[in-house]
Amino acid sequence: MIKLVEDIDGWLNKLTKAKCEYADLRVQQIEIERLSSSSRKIEPVEKSVTLGFGVRVLKDGSWGFAASSQFNEKEYERIVKLAIAIADASRKVNKIPIELGQYPTAKGNYETPFTKDPFTMSIAEKLDLLAHWEDLMHADAAITATMAFLDFRRETKMFRSTAGSDIKQVLLHTGAGVTCGIVKGRRERYERSFPTSSGQFVSGGFEQIASFKIDENIPKVAAQAVEMQTAAECPEKVADIVLSPDLASLQIHESIGHPLELDRVFGSERNFSGTSFATTDKLNKLKYASEFVNVYSDPTYPGGLATYKYDDDGVEASRTPLIKDGILVGYLSSLETAKRINAKSSAAARAEGWGNVPLVRMTNLTLEPGDKKFADMIAEIEDGIYIEGVEQWSIDDNRDNFTLGGEVGWEIKNGKLGAMVKAPSYSGNTVQFWNSCDSTGHKDEWVLWGTPNCGKGEPGQNGRTAQGAAYVRFRQVKVGG
Amino acid sequence: MIDKDQTLSSLKEALEASTADQTELCLIGEDLSLTRFAESQIHQNMYRADTTVYVRAIKNKKIGITSTGDLSAQALKQAVVDACTIAELMPEDSDFDSLPSPQTAPTITANDAATTENTPLLRADAVGKVVELCRKSDLQTAGAYRVTTDTVAVVNSLGVEQFGTSSRSELSLTANGEKGNAGWAIAYAHDAKTISPEQIAKRAIDKAARSLDPISLETGPYTVILEPAAVGQLLLFLAFMGFGAKTLYQQRSFMAGKIGEKITGDNITIIEDPLAPEFAGLPFDYEGVPRKQVTLIENGIARGVVSNSYYARLLQSESTGHALPPNNTYGPYPKYMAVGAGNSTIEEMVASTGRGVYITHFWYVNFLNPMKTQVTGTTRDGTFLIENGKIGAAIKNMRINQSILEAFANAEMISKTRELYPQYSVAMLVPAMKINNFGLETTEG
Fold first, then answer.
1. What is the DSSP letter of A291?
2. Distance (Å) from the C-alpha of residue A94 to the closest C-alpha of chain B?
């Protein structure tokens, strides 16, 4: 791959140095392997490799980007020239030049630590694990519809810029999960998943799967799926709620992560993913959440699906406070967007693969835990619902009004968990909701959850993010079924 | 541009490296140009040329799939060898019968020269026009102008040999004002020349101008008038939830057990119509099987689903030519859906409505209950109150909570004109609809 980088970099320097303020090059290879089973039947293994390069130029204050999967001298020249021509076309419309501030000049390497490489293991060993989980799920005779999967992704990324950056990163991700289901008649289906509805995803190798504790938890979730058949609908009322860490992770993702993407705040997604209520005039002023809430962006946090050393601007990763004691204090940003508020980039410029431009994306977002364990939180609730798992979600285009729901819930009465309820949902408005939070759980119950499928941008880019949370409690929230 | 003869020749040559019982190569090429703009500036402008060859090899009913982006003869042969190796490691799939045999696909003009040759300067010119028109109305603009040429080639060891290219272009625009008012419009066409930036801008500007000072509406069932894009967004989710043979076979489709039964109003007919000239799509699927017209719902009665060769066999039918790329486990899926036209105009729908809500499109539609086709989402960029037969005040965005089949059972009027609407690589030809008892909830408090 280094030879490819040298060759393309040669064209980049030759064609852009005299004409452009800045240019960069990403050469990326992504290997994917996904194995899955459905009711004991093994699906065809999804195995793919993609290799390509993308060239981004900033010329006369406008961006141009071109990318290709073909590696030859003629194509390198065509793509670099096209990126310049595209920047020239952008300039025809643009009145305000884009500025990046100080160009990064990082040189370095980073590789996800791992002990067992899933790509060199035999397929048989991996299929055996799926069969083992299927056996465990079907050990409960009532379980009739099951799913299990393993997902591996290795991204080798080399980055060069005309400012002098020279970076290589190899990021390895592992994911796994199971779903126990019961199909009753033609219209009823009851499902419980573990570790969560789309599985857990982390940085690392095959060795990480043991930490998901799937074997140990299958009997529990299978029994819950059975119990769901006779569980009552969740009552519609205003009540205190406790969210499981995986559902809290989604809540952070949708109502803190997305609203604080600075490109979205400036309107870059106005026509597609939407805008944000958290405009820059509210920085350091908006009481986004209660005083118990502290949220950081942290690509340096180990093991997350967004753990890396450099972003796709070539900026070295760092921990950035977003919400401090409930106050909005920062944004997820790129070089370009951070410059507009005279801030330091939070190293959140990230592109999906070689064929896309970097956008401001979520990284590892951490909701700092407090001092209350799950049992203590429940003990302090008179009337409430504990909601577990992820079933549904939707939030408006200004990231204000949302509805989310879990796979299953339990009533809380006088400090104790009571009867199970089916598919509970809750809704609210972002700032009002986060200001009703009065506990962010305990560090012993805190989990960094991976989200492998965060959609944003046109053409659609699939981002890999993570959100860390323990159990989280909110007071007086609208709940229903 | 990917050359037909050279491509088919290299794919066939690579087939010879196979030691499998049956082997298939599927090349998928994408040439994408996209100009995105916001705050009246172009903030993202790009081109991408991506080509991938998928190989599917079958040995004793064991299926191995791999892919490569390297189109050299050596790399293609290696991919075939790798797929054969993977097949040997897989368990037998007793439900697999055979790759498809050769069939002739109809010839259609799917590749438009003006669209294929659309340049960054042409797109910038179009963006410049909409920015200027919006500026004259004191509005900012955000949007995207996308031009795509897709190439698909399929060969298999049974003699299938298909090659085709298809182009499409799309301009979408949100005009937005300082007070949060906004209007959205979209145009999609096979031929880029038919897209008028001025017309799109006019529609978006008109809605933005009328969106000032929105009022709140209480939760309740409303008569709604959905523009074609809003109908398309519901249709797409209906397809997710049940128009594919895999979901039907696994009894996860709302169509399961309902074929031949009434599931919507008499006035609803939905056809997967891949050969309709409006779509100008590729006439064969990713297995090389000719795409066939499939009636999904006819006058309210559930008629059928789309299939690929694998699920057609399980359902004891023939493939309708709707296979997705080989590495996809989602199953067959419709790609060109058309909803039957009615005999009304949007103006007649508005005039006949005492009190209702006019909806331009939705955002973040997501499942609540797939078996009941229940979805949520919010209205966006152009929602208005209808009172006494006239469109009036703008309405703050509302959340929907609605079964799509119930909505299609309550469609009182359907427009005689239809518009093309694209989403997630699916193209739809959809009318506007007037629907009664549509669930809307306030997003306040």
1. T
2. 5
Pair A427, A402: CB distance under 8 Å: yes
Say which of A52, A71, A268 has its CB closest to residue B50.
Answer: A52
Distance between CA atoms of residues B1 and B4, nearest Å: 9
Band (pLDDT 50/70/90 cuts) for residue B445 is low
Q: What is the mean pLDDT of chain B?
A: 94
At residue B113, what are phi and psi to the nearest 5 degrees?
Answer: -60, -45
pLDDT in tens, A244-268: 999 999 999 999 999 999 999 999 9
Computed over every residue of chain A, the mean pLDDT equals 96
- Quick check: A277 pLDDT over 90? yes
Buried b (16+ CB within 10 A) or exposed e, A99-122: ebeebbebeeebebebeeebeeee
Distance between CA B443 and CA B445 in Å, rounded? 7
ipTM above 0.90, yes or no: yes
| Structural tokens at position B327 | 């590495």
Q: Which of A65, A396, A427 sits opposite B363 (nearest CB)?
A: A396
Inter-residue contact B224 to B215 (CB < 8 Å): no
Domains of chain A, each with CATH number or no CATH: 2-228 (3.30.2290.10), 232-480 (no CATH)
Closest chain B C-alpha to A266 CA, distance in angstroms: 8
B-proximal residues of A, 276-335, CB under 8 Å: none
Half-sphere exposure of B16 (CA within 13 A, CB side): 7
A187 pLDDT tier (thresholds 50, 70, 90): low
CB A9 within 8 A of CB A159: no
Residue B286 is predicted with a pLDDT of 98
What whole-number percentage of chain A has pLDDT above 70? 99
pTM of the model: 0.96
Q: Which of B3, B45, B82, B147 to mutate to test the interface with A (most CBs of A within 10 A)?
A: B45
Q: What is the pLDDT of residue A290?
A: 98
B89 contacts chain A (CB < 8 A): yes
Parallel, antiparallel, or unpaired: how do β-strands A107-111 and A166-184 relate? parallel
B376 lies within 8 A of chain A by CB: yes
- Of all residues in chain B, the one with the smallest CA distance to A185 is B251
Element (H, E) at B351: helix B346-351
Biggest CA-to-CA distance, chain A: 73
CA nearest B82 in A: which residue? A47
Cα(A469)–Cα(A232) distance, rounded to whole angstroms? 28
A52, A401, A459 ranked by CB distance to B32: nearest? A459
Q: Which residues of A177-200 are buried (b: 16+ CB within 10 A; e: fewer)?
A: bbbbbbbeeeeebbbbbbbbbbbb
The two tokens of residue B78 are: 């290696």
Does the beta-carbon distance from A90 to B35 stay under 8 Å? yes
Q: How far from A347 is each of A53, A62, A79, B9, B378, CA to CA, in Å?
A: 21, 21, 26, 46, 32
B343 contact A CB<8A: no
| Dist. CA B370–CA A70, nearest whole Å | 41
Residues B321-367 pLDDT 10s: 999 998 888 899 999 999 999 999 999 999 999 999 999 999 999 98
**What is the set of domains in chain B, with CATH numbers?**
4-204 (3.30.2290.10), 213-445 (no CATH)
Q: pLDDT tens, B135-181?
A: 999 999 999 999 999 999 999 999 999 999 999 999 999 999 999 89
For chain B, how many residues are written? 445
